[in-house]
């Protein structure tokens, strides 16, 4: 069995609509997979937990002037998604958002993929 890096695992799971997280084996506190030690108890023991990539839009920034190479995607929003059944928040890309009326805070959304833009989030 080939061993993928954490980043590769995050990407593969995002393509399947899931989020790879790290759960502390000592206290159970849940972290994003980028954590190296438990923010609650300091332990370095983690186990992988897959969460459904669904949640609510917590906040976002609308991008109308894109960085080089991303002009074709505008307008879009850089969205912070609060995941269901956890306090974790992840950020990602949502296409077609031009103004706040397009995306009220609290809108249901889900992870749908991963590409050069990063994690792709779409309205549910
Ligand atoms: Zn812990």
UniProtKB/TrEMBL annotation:
<dbReference type="Pfam" id="PF12172">
    <property type="entry name" value="zf-ChsH2"/>
</dbReference>
<dbReference type="InterPro" id="IPR002878">
    <property type="entry name" value="ChsH2_C"/>
</dbReference>
<dbReference type="InterPro" id="IPR022002">
    <property type="entry name" value="ChsH2_Znr"/>
</dbReference>
<feature type="domain" description="ChsH2 rubredoxin-like zinc ribbon">
    <location>
        <begin position="14"/>
        <end position="47"/>
    </location>
</feature>
<protein>
    <recommendedName>
        <fullName>DUF35 domain-containing protein</fullName>
    </recommendedName>
</protein>
<dbReference type="Pfam" id="PF01796">
    <property type="entry name" value="OB_ChsH2_C"/>
</dbReference>
<feature type="domain" description="ChsH2 C-terminal OB-fold">
    <location>
        <begin position="49"/>
        <end position="112"/>
    </location>
</feature>
<dbReference type="InterPro" id="IPR052513">
    <property type="entry name" value="Thioester_dehydratase-like"/>
</dbReference>
<dbReference type="InterPro" id="IPR012340">
    <property type="entry name" value="NA-bd_OB-fold"/>
</dbReference>
């Amino acid at each position: 069995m080939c061993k993928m890096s954490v980043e590769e695992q995050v990407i593969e799971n995002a393509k399947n609509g899931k989020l790879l997280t790290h759960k502390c084996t000592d206290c159970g506190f849940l972290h994003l997979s980028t954590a190296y030690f438990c923010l609650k108890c300091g332990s370095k023991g983690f186990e992988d937990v897959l969460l459904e990539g669904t949640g609510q839009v917590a906040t976002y920034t609308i991008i109308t002037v894109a960085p080089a190479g991303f002009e074709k995607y505008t307008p879009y929003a850089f969205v912070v998604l609060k995941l269901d059944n956890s306090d974790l928040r992840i950020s990602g890309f949502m296409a077609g958002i031009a103004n706040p009326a397009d995306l009220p805070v609290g809108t249901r959304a889900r992870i749908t993929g991963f590409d050069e833009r990063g994690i792709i989030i779409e309205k549910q």
